[in-house]
Amino acid sequence: MNTNKLWSADFIKICLSSFFLFFSFYTLATALSVYVTNGLGGSDTQAGLSMTVFVIASVLLRPFAGQLMSKYGEHKIVVISLLLFLLFSMAYLGVFGYAMLLLVRFFHGGTFAIATTSTNTTAIGIIPEHRKGEGISYFSLFMSLAMVIGPFVGLTITTHGGFTAMFALCAVCSLIAFVLGASTRRKADKQVPAAAEVQPKKSKSKLHWRDLIEKKAVPIAFSGFVVAFAYSGLVTFMSVYAHEQAIDQYASYFFVCFGIMIVLPRPIVGKLLDRVGEHVIVYPSIAIFTIGMLLLSQASSPVLLLVSGAVIGLGYGALLPCFQTIAVLAAPAHRRGLATATFYLLFDLGYGIGSYTLGSLASSYGYRVMYIFCAIIIASSSIIYFTLHHKRKRLTNAASEEAYVS
Question: Is the pTM of this model over 0.85?
Fold first, then answer.
């Protein structure tokens, strides 16, 4: 049996499950503001709150995902979380008011956090040990594809088919994600009844923060926090900025260029990560991401807008799988679920805080200044990365070599 095989049936299923999960999320995220303002007669502030509630639930519940997998078993949590995500996706079809929408959004956000963490952990467990970088890169590629396709489909269906059709599509995608995820079983699931059995048995005690956070993943997660902070300005305000520059008809093409440059180099990035290490990819990617944001801040023509989208996609698309791989490999095998949860917890926080902070900055100083500030923030992530990860790893390796020699 080839233990180095990456594209197994289970890996393909969990990748597709993740795609449909994120497709449903991004379709809703883009079209929901239109639903709140046009369908429910709400304000722009209420539309923003519908996303904030979702993020709050994700941040609150994501730390418990690793603990739940350790206690009840990885596969069981995948099945339950995807089932609940499906049920709350269907619940949008019965929403009759804004208060009910917020309630559905809160529970939907919580199940999304646990479902994404558990499916990530399953995928990481399926990927051969010596191909983690490549495998995680491909797995995150499916999320990136959903990020590109979902918003376009959501707005198109809402325009031509109405909100009911959009909610029905999300429910169908959630059903497909559930079926694929529930049928995925990595080899460890067949050999070990529950993930908790990998760890030593512990007597019952109070819940400790170490049960919710993997501290070895925190340093690289801070770099992810900073990148997510800046990235939120792109997702939240790009269309408004393009309208301000009178090139709003090209905003959708911006995301096409962005998506293409995420997809095309991904196989190369994954293989480089496994063969030459993370530093060779991270520093150039931060530089490229920073340049892309600076170009966007000066984009007053369609050509410059599209070029900035391609450059940003190349930088951001390489950084995210690198950071996630570093977080996973920093933790012991039985705590990789917690490592994934820790990384995305700080990523969600960065995204949520960034959306609010950058919106306030744009209101006072304009979107050009905001994107210049985003470029500075991204560039500063190189200092954080060097201090919290690169330097620490170099010192650890040096100490290990000295101990080996002596």
Answer: no
